Amino acid sequence: MSDRRIGVYICHCGGNISDYVDVEAVRQAVEVEPGVVVAKTAMFTCSDATQQEMIEDIREQNLDGLVVASCSPKLHLFTFREVAKRAGLNPYRYTQVNVREQCSWTHTDDRAGATEKAVRLVRAGVARTALTEPLEPIVIDTVPKVLVVGAGIAGLRAAIGLADLGISVLLAEKSAAPGGWVAGFNKMYPHDRTGRLLIKQLVDKVKRRENITLFTDAELVAKSGSIGNFQVKIRVNGQKTEEISTNVGSIIVATGFDGYHPRDGEYGYGIDGVVTLPEYKEILDNAGDKMLFNGKEIKNVVYIYCVGSRQQTGENPHRYCSRYCCNAGVHAAVESAEKDPQVNQYHLFRDMRTYGKFELLYGRAREKGSVFLKFDDNEPPVVEKGPDGRLKVTVKDLLTYGEQVEIPADVVVLVTGMMPRENSALVDILKLPVGRDGFFNEIHPKLRPVETVVDGVFICGACQGPKNSAESVASALAAVTQSASILKKGFVELEPLIAVIDPKKCKLCDVCSKSCPYSAIEQEHYQGKTVARVNEAVCKGCGGCAPLCPDNAIDLKGYTDAQMESMIDAMLKEIG
Amino acid sequence: MGGTTKEGKDFVPKILAFSTNNISDPGIDLAGSSHMHYPPSVMVISMPCTSGIKPGWILHAVEKGFDGVFIAADGEECAYLPDCSERASRIVKEAQDLLKQKGYEPERLKMSAICSVCAGPFTSQIKDYYETLKKLGPARKG
């Protein structure tokens, strides 16, 4: 017999569960489980009234465990943990059992089967709860200071945002001047303000704020500690190299992207007159009344899109769309037409993606005479130098049923995409998660878009994936908010569901510490011997070390051997 | 699920599926939200990461009455461990060795990467596995 006092609540979910599962039968089946002292059903367990009822039951019945069988834990795990907390019950003695997404909704065709499964799942939840122990969140005091790595438009804007919230900023830029790519941009859509001016304004603001320290020629060379209190070392390469060590509460990575550099011969790259989009923009920016290439007036321009993006073949292909390039291509065309209304412009594309408001820019390019031809990825345009010394582009146009078109060109512009920047030293120091595409990965693409698996390390801007400057700034400000939400409170609470090593069983073979990419396993003395110990502030709670221990000395809290085996047993118990 | 331990036509294999909180469990949830059907004798336990599954649990499940264990793995999407796939393969191999030592078929364990929107792939794979186990018969003979 269990001496536990567990309350079980089974949700109808207004019919979402009870239409397919006999919730009363489930209640009756689990009511007699060892340790269960309260078993109830409710129309909506998440309703205020039922939450209040649970709180009263916990207090009056002196419950020491809580089980709610309702929807997926993704929806209400934290809701019911809070209920437990409000009633004075340790929130880690709560278990959520998913009888909606993983039971009623997926067995709408089998009421008896679904009901039986629900009984088994709730029993497993009760068994797990019976073996929970009260856990306290790991509390860490935070340092009200942020390291921002990279002073492009995202890093600069993030620094200002943080400073205005009263958080000190250390802004480290690897190159000699702040501003990144945008500092080199001329007029930008939609306001025609230049990138140079935008950056100048941001840098002025940075300089006016006393709580921002900007270092150029600087890079992060070491990091230790964890969320709330990292120790970082910055190397500043000036006339003499100096190293600055300081403590920060969080780190924002805004290291940007590299432009794609075409291979020799890719769409004729290497032939005089075949240029990348950034190279063409330079010609455009430096043009007086006339656009010139090698002293000759530019009359015919051919743009080829998706160069370095959406690659299907080759070694490590860039499969992703670089997002900004269609917009940048048509923007260059509009600018060119404004400079010389007589210029002929041909755009050879696979798909045009001038999403959102950029559609207007696309329209403007067409109004100003740009011609768009669609080519097949399998039959890309061919760029050659003709006998007359002029560039010639041959393309099969899908929009005119595959008609072969030859276009003479003065310049061919390869609309090049974005590439992940080579940053292996930084990846190594910060343990940044790198995706298959080479850009840094967030925890959740929709709901946690700037957080990484490394607590306290945020990513923003184009280091995360292709973004334009507006999108980069938006994500930078998201990183500001996330950083501030930690640092303004003064402390962080970490999930205590982490690995724990039994010092009695540990023989210090070092397998676990070698297997942990976060270096979370340290050593300590225990009864005259040295054993492995988990640094609770660093452990991510993945449990990856646990199965590797040859002496089975490691358990993951919340997923211990005893809990898992008792859940399995409970799921298999005969249905009476 | 009445005749779970019976052999023959009425045999309903019980399957324990291990999912992960951030990747495959949302995929399995999505199968439910989309009202896709799979047998109710499939039960899921969710973990933080595939690499945390102990081979001993798998043996325990089969010894105690599950006819098969399906690991809905993080695959390349794991946010914790860059080598999660390799670790998971090692766990599968170790667990299959344990199963074989105790006289169970290695097919009692199957692993497949299930992403956070892989509702369709999960449903069809678990149904296929159910049929495989049905042919294989109960894990505990006699």
From TrEMBL, chain A:
Answer whether the UniProt record assigns the keyword Cytoplasm to this protein: no
Which GO MF term does the entry hold, naming one? Answer: oxidoreductase activity
Is the keyword 4Fe-4S assigned to this protein? yes
Which is an annotated Pfam family here?
A: Pyr_redox_2
User: Which cofactor does the UniProt annotation name?
Assistant: FAD
Q: What is this protein called?
A: Heterodisulfide reductase subunit A
Q: Which organism is it from?
A: Desulfoscipio geothermicus DSM 3669
UniProt keywords, alphabetically: 4Fe-4S, FAD, Flavoprotein, Iron, Iron-sulfur, Metal-binding, Oxidoreductase
The similarity comment for this entry is: Belongs to the HdrA family.
Q: What are the 4Fe-4S ferredoxin-type domain coordinates in residue numbering?
A: 497-526, 530-559
Automatic annotation (TrEMBL), chain B:
Keywords on this record?
Answer: Iron, Iron-sulfur, Metal-binding, Oxidoreductase
Per UniProt, residues of the F420-non-reducing hydrogenase iron-sulfur subunit D domain are: 15-137
- GO-annotated molecular function: iron-sulfur cluster binding; metal ion binding; oxidoreductase activity
Q: Residues of the signal sequence?
A: none
Read off the InterPro entries from this record: MvhD/FlpD
Does Iron-sulfur appear among the keywords? yes
Question: What Pfam families has UniProt attached to this entry?
Answer: FlpD
Q: What is this protein called?
A: Coenzyme F420-reducing hydrogenase, delta subunit
Gene source species: Desulfoscipio geothermicus DSM 3669
